[in-house]
Every structure is written in structure tokens, then in C-alpha cells.
Amino acid sequence: MTIPDFLLAAAVFVLATVALGLVRILRGPEDADRMMATQLFGTGGIAALLLLGVATEARAVLDVALTLALLAAFASVAFVRSASSSEGDDPKETNSP
Amino acid sequence: MNTPTLFGLCAVALVGVGLYGLIVNPQPLRKILAFNLIGSGVFLLFGAIARRGAAVGMGGDPVPQALLITGIVVAFSATALAVALVLRLFDEAGSVTLAPDAPAEPPDA
Amino acid sequence: MSLVLDIFTIVAVSAGAFFFLAGTVGLLRFPDTLTRLHALTKADNLGLGLVVMGLLPQAEWPFDSIKLIAIWLFALLAGATVGQLMARAARREQTTP
Amino acid sequence: MPHSLSTPDVTTPGGLLLVLAVLVPFVGVLAGMVLGGRGARRVALATLAAGLAIAIAIADTLVRSGAAVVYLLGGWTPPLGVALRADGLAVIMLLAVAVVIGGIGVYARADFGTPPGVREARAPFVFWTLLLAVWGSLNLVFVSGDLFTLYVALELLTFAGVPLVSLGGQPETLRSALRYLLYALFGSVLYLLGAVLLYGAYGTLDIGLLAARVHPEPVTWAAAALMTVGLLAKTALFPLHLWLPPAHAGAPAAASAVLSGLVIKGSWFLAVRLWLDVFVGVVTLPSAQTLAALGAAAILVGNIVALRQARLKLLIAYSTVAQIGYLFLMFPLAAGLAAAQLDDAAAVNGGLLQAISHATAKAAMFMAAGLVYTTLGHDRIADLRGVARALPMTLVAFALGGASLIGLPPSGGFLAKWLLVSAAITTAQWWWALVMLVGGLLTSAYVFIVVVRALAPAPEGWTPKASVPCYQQVAVLALALCSFLLGLAVLCPVDVAGIGRAVVPGIGSP
Amino acid sequence: MTLALAVDISLTLLVLAVAGWIIAVRDTFAAMIGFVAYGLLLALVWVRLAAPDVALTEAAIGGGLTGALLIGAAARLRGTEAAARAEYPGALTRTLAAVLAVTVAAALAIGVLALPDPTPTLAPAAAANLATTGVGNPVTAVLLAFRAMDTLLEAIVVLLALLGVWSLAPDRAWGGCPGPRRLVDPDGVLAWLARLLPPIGIVVGLYIFWIGADLPGGKFQGATILAAMWLLVIWAGLADTPPISRTWLRVLLVAGPLVFIVIGFAGSITAGAVLAYPEGHAKPLIVAIEIALMPTLVLTLALLVAGAPQRIPPQ
Lengths: 97, 109, 97, 510, 315
Known about the structure:
With 97 residues, chain A is mainly alpha-helical.
């Protein structure tokens, strides 16, 4: 087994594993659980992407992973922000003065 | 079965799934989401076609790939407009139902 | 030399994949949101870190290697912050059901 | 004999005008955004004048050269590049839209002024910038020769049209706008799907090249079906019309005129373009009959529902549903003529005239309704007493527009229906003529009711709620007269619509 | 290549599973979270389809901006869930919808399988003309030379969408700041992240933008990253959205398309056609257009997410 083959196999394994974690999105029960599953999925997806990219020598994949890593944080912040604002009693946020 | 064909079939399945969601989900946000799924199916089909057109050392036909970027940005704009409309409707009416509750009347000339 | 590096890649990537598996199992089996969060932040950071480490010998020095490390750092940063924020949100959900 | 576009290879003299026709309105949008407030209105009115001049110049170029005007953007030839192309059909639409939008612009001067003491107000700013945006998008739909550019054009048209619907900001108009947006997005995504399939099968998105390459096979049929359904949803052909009446009736009068008179013509025009020029050897007569059957149903349903409306604006909006039906009667007629190896000009010109006369008449009628609303403070049809005294010119305009919808000579509607009926009789499809006849009777019933109610004398001591400026009434009357006198186009010595549409061998031959 | 096929098959199954779940799940908020995961999967698919430029766009927009937009909206509409469920159609409608969806998908599948082989492609034509554009990335060449019109129109589309979003402001808030005001704890984690991440993000965004001429990347992808960073700073309360009546904002919003149009028309004098570039100057002009579009796109994309103006403008 050559290194690229091994890396591809590892990509499949990681992808399948974190996909299993998506069951947590299904089950919840809290939104935080769902977001965590997405977080794990994001990290795993980035790992799979890197493995794929290095295995097929597609260097541009690194930039895709870089973007994903940056924006994964962004989407999570959007989640946390809305999760707290949806409760409506957060004193730190005010609407129009 | 090669990669473009596989993803091409995946794309048409996505169109089907999105179409179903667009029809049965009454919530506007879910309709927007379903519309995004159909859109991604269409884009994916275009991507599969681009991949089939790989030639002269290019991994895919660059014309569809460029159009895809345009398409994705346009779809994002559409989503943003639709979401803003839903939120304003919610602010004004307190609900987001699409069903006209009363016989539609022009409130303004 | 190349063989040693290849073996290093295989070992590190395998270990990384194992941590993803562990993270998924934790996500699915642990009893409540906070413990799940606790397990998860460790697992995905370590998993991605090991994968990145394993890929370093296969990547082109220096540019791609720097990018790989940057990707891991982003994921770390995002994971840490979001973990914090989510823990707070989860705690609030628990205290004010 | 069926027509097809000639394949473009070179930029023709005057081709630059096409670029101007598309980009000048958008430059106006950009300038309006920066200048804001009153500046936006000034920019819009100046652009309206400039755009009309450009449209006339294009028409002049076309008639002089007797061939389609073509521009290769960036000098790149399709399929790699994108071509702009204006044949007779496109030029007539360009001109008609320029005239109608000019009329609407003059009318809207009074309704969409920035109030004193404010630097910029929401409704005027949005209206004037989006009016230009609608115009640029429509011009792009008419002259673009590339399916993907046309997709972008359709989206531009949607994004410009939706805020016009919700300009009032009430829950009901917001709901209509949302429904409209969802229908429109659904329509565009289907259209894009069809375009993608065509690219996969034939490797080009250029209309001219596709016309030469397509042949009847499953992929082409699928593409044609998807694109047609998508465009029908955007045009609001029965039974996909449900979004239209509340959306068009709920907008301010000038916006309704834009939406009902112009915006829906964009997607209709594209459907015509596809059926007549791209899928000419692919679509079958039964599929064209289906389109016309939907059109016939739209005529009957739209007119009957219009008759039952209590509010003037809703009546006019449902009348649009019916008039859209006429626009689709041309498809089997054109196909029938082509199949009989006859010139399809009668059907095509009939459809085109119907589009233009409806655009002018409907814009005039919506704006007339707007003036009635301003004057009376309501638009209940049962209570239109006094309109004749307060707004004589407007009532005449409404009646003239109505006459064109009914199809009384010498209106554009008359000539359109006459051409369509004669095509129906030539091709032995008399039932479409019957539908048109019944539709005309129903239309005359509601136009008559409105006019009679408006002629009733006002009660003693009644005064108008507000007075409207004279130029608004003149603008409305001018548009209505355009529609009413359009039938004189029969005197036009050249078949402008046929220019640039080269004759090719009929269906079935390679 | 069986392993590669295994990757593709597992990706396909995952994409379909997540898509089906997004449609089927009852809770809208959960569906939105699923959509973020879906965007990530799509980015992987684009890599497998050898379309790194599209993968970058999808990663930035599909997972990032669209996800943030939808999650935020779903959170605000939480209260309407019950009402929406009451409207859920009956079994008959659902069956009909399913039949329709399956029919359409099956018809399309036949079309996909019937696509000609070898596929017609414009790759050779693009390759043959790549040299005249001076750029190394064929996708960039298509976007800014061969089909520059589409890109120009797209910049206008985005702007029109923003106008549409703004038009949804209440009358009294016209000219004011988009979105609710946020006063977040300046020592909090979010503020910390919003101080740490944007400098790095700006470097990455500019890098993705800059390499776009010759490698996968470009203005849309770079602009999206920058827009996300700006939104992060706004959400952390470290900065506020600008009032939409500001002249500098308006100027920056129209600057990109306007420069594009000016350079385009200059081409009709110097190079014989609108949107053509004089020989030997293609690359600098393309880069100039991209640089001009960059601030426009950053502002427009971020403000599209920020929403309609909600606060009364400061006097």
C-alpha cells in the first residue's frame, strides 16, 4: 500500500467516523449538542480534506481547508450569538435605543 | 461508474429532495433552505459536467467552473434578500405564514 | 530516510483517525452536554493535530507546511473559543430551563 | 417557414449601442445610490431620456442595416465569449419598454418626491433606483445572446421587482413580495437547470450556436420543459398565477405599472426566444397546444375573477392574469404556420403586439387607478362617482386602455388579436379564436362597468380628497393613446419584427 | 482507483443523507445547523470534482455566510414553529410531492446518463486564449476576460440585493444602522476572538484574493473571508455597522462596478471592444478591476448578512 492510498483510506475512515457523529445532530437534545456535532464534523471534514489533498497532490486544497477552518469558527459564533439572543432576556444586547 | 457520473446522479437526487421540501414545508425559511438545496443540486450537476469536460491538462472545463462561482454568489444574494423579507414580515405581522388569511386586498393605492 | 518519514506519517495519521473515532464515540455515548463538550474539544484538536503532523513530511516545505500548521492553529483557536461560548450557553440552558 | 437566428461572428456597426442600452441604466442606479435622495430622482429622469434616445438609435441602426445588431463583448466570439444581439423582436421590445418606462417616470415624479426637510426618504430612493434597475435588466433580457447571462438578467429583474412589491411595507404586501420572490427563485433555478443540461449536451450557452446544434433527444426535451416551466412561473401563467394579483395590486400605482406592464414581459420574451429560435425543431405541436391551453384557461379564469372584484386595482391585476393568457396563444399558431411551411410572422407579430399593447395599456390603467385612489381616497368600484368630473382625462385614458385590452379597432390590442385570430383560422385552430372572442366579451363587461360607475354624477357638495397634477394625467393619457393607436402599426412599410431572423429550412430537416 | 471511488461514494451518501435530514427534521433551527455541515460536505465534493475555485467559494459562502445568515434568522423565528407545524400539509399532498420529486429526479437522471461522450468542452478554447489575458488561472480568465460581462452583472446583482434588503427598513429607520445594537462584555471570549482572529483572517483573505490571478482563489472568496471577519468584529460589539446614509459607504459600494464599467468602456477605445483589454496590459487591468471590486464586495456581502437598517439614524 502506497502512501497516497493509505491517506485516501484514512480520509474515508475519518469522514465516515465523524459522519457517525452526525447522529447527534439528529438526536440533539440541546442545540449546543447539535452545534458540537457540527464542530466535530467540521474538524473531521478539514482533516479528510487535507488527507485527500495531500494524497492527490492538489495543493489548492490547503487553501480550501484554511478558509473552512477560519469560517467554521465564524458559523459557530453566529450560532452562539443567536442561541443567547433567542432567549430574549440577555441584558447585554439591546435593540434600538 | 466514474466520479462525474456519480456526482451527477447525486445532483439530480438533491434536486428531487429540494423540490419535495419546497412543496411540503410551509415555513418560509424552510422553503428558502429547500431552494438552496435545489440550487446546490443544479450547481453540482454543472460541476459534474465541467469535470467531464476535463481536457488539455485542466482538471475541468473552466467556463462552467467560473459560472458556478457567479451562481453561488447570486444564490447567496437571493437567500439574503429572502431572509430579510421573512424577518421584516415577522416584525410586522408577528407570524411568517404565507397563506393569505383574508381575501387579499390592496392596502394602498 | 523516506521510509522513516512514511512510517511516521502512517503512525501519526492513524493516531489522528483514532482520536476522531474516540471523539465520535464520546459525542454519542457521554451522558450530558457538558461532558460531551469536554471530551469533544480534546478529541478533535488532537485528531486534527496528529493528522497535520503526519502530513507535514509529505507536504512541500516551507509554504504548505506553514499552511498546514496554520490550519491546525485556526481549528484550535476556534475550538477553544467556541467551546467556551458553548459551555456558557449550555450552562445557561441548564440553569434556566 | 420557421425562423432562426443567424450565427454571429462579428460586431456590427452600432453594436456598441446595445452595451449602452444595458449599462446606462445600471450606471444610473450606481449614480443614484451615491447622490441619494433628490439626486436619485434627477439621475433617473435624465437616464430615462438618454435611454429612450439609445433605443431609438438602435431601432434606426436595425432598420437601416436590415440585419440584426450584434456586439461581441470583449471581442471574444461565442462559445467562449458572450454576444449581445438585437433582432427585430428585441428592438421593438426595447423601444416599447423605453416609452412605457418614460411615461411611468413622468407620472411617478409626483408620487415619489423626497419630502421637504429630509435628505433622503426610503420609498423614493428605492423606487427611482430600482426603476432604472428594472429597465437595465429588461434590456439585458432582450439583447443578451447567452443563456447564463440571461439567467443573471432574470435574477436582476427579480431582485429589482420584489422590493417594488413590498414598497408599502404592510404585512400583506410583504407576504405578497415573499411569495413572489419564492416563485421567481424557483423559476430561475429551473431555468438554470435547463441551461446546464444544454451546456452538458452541446457545449455552448450561446443562443445562436445552440439553435444550430440542438436536435430532438431526451436531454433537449428535459431542458426545454424545465426552462419553460421556470419561465411560466415567473410570467405567472395559469395555474402558476396565484402570486401575481396581490403582489401587483398591493404595490404603489407606479410600481404596479412597472410590475404588471413590464416585468412579466421579460420572462415571457425569453420563453418566446427559446421556443421560436432555439427549440424550433425540438418542441412539438402538442406541447405548444398545452401552453396555449393554459393561456386559454388564464384568459377565462382571469377575466371571470376580474369581473367579481370589488377593488379597482385588483380588477386590473386579475385582468393582467387574463392578458398573459393571450401572450401564450401565439405558440401553437406560430408552430402551426411553420408546420404548414407558411410565414409565422402573423402569429409572432400578433404575440409581440399583444405584449406591447398590454404593456402600454396596463401601465396606463394602473396609473389611472392610482389617480382615482388619490382623488377619492379609495378604489371601491361600487363607489366611483365623481371620477368623471374630477379626472376626465384619466377616465378617457382608462377607457382607451380598456378598449385596447378588449381589442377594439384601431387599438394595438385589436391588431394583435386580429393577427392571432387570422393565424388561428389559417392553421385550422378555430377554437383559439373562440377563446379570444369570449375573453374580449368578458373584458368589455368589466371595463364597461368601471367606466359607467365612474361616469355617475358626484353627490352634491362632493369635493376631491386631493388634487392631482395635470402632468400625471397627461402621462397616463399619453400611454393609453400609444396603446390605442398602436393598431396603426399595420401601416408600417417594413416588417421590423422579422429583421435579423434568417429563414432556415423547416422542422425535421437537418 | 477503487479507493478514490470509495471516497466519492461515501461523500455522495453523506451529502444525500444530510440533505434528506435537512428537509425532514421538524425543528427549523436544527435544519439550519445541518445546512452548515452540508456546506462543508459540498466543499469536499467540489475538491473531488477538481474545482478548487468553486470549493473555496462554497467553503466561504455556503458554510460560512449563508449558514450564519440562516442560523440567525431561525433563532429569531423560534416562536413561529408551532404555527408552521399546524400548516404542514396532509398525506395526500406529501405523496403527490414525493411522486413529483421522484419523477423529476428520474427524468433528470436519464438526461445525465444520456450526456454525450466525449463531452463538448471549452477547456481547449480557454487554454488557447489564456496567454492573451496574462493570468494563469483559467477560471479567473473566464470571469474577467472571456465572460467579464457576467462578473460585472453579478457585482450589480449583489448590489441590487442589498438595495432590496435595505428597502425593508421601517421608514423611520431609513439611513440608520443595520441590525440591532450589540453591547457585549469587552473582556468576554467573543471579544477576545474578535480581536485575535480578524488580523489573521485579513491576511488569509488578502492572500486568497491575491493568488487568484494565477492559482485557485480570487476576489469573491477573499472578499467573503474579509466580510466574515468584519461581521465577527461587529457581533463582538467592537464596532458597529455604519449608517447606510454615509457617503463614504455609498461611494465604496458603487466604486467596484463603476471602475469595472469605466475600464470596460475604455477598452472600446484602446482595444476595440467594450470589456477588452489592450494587448500586454490585460493582467494589470484585470488586477485593477479585482482590487476595485474587493471593498465593494466585502461591504455588500457583510451588509447583506447584517440585514435591513433598524435603528434611527444619528443626527
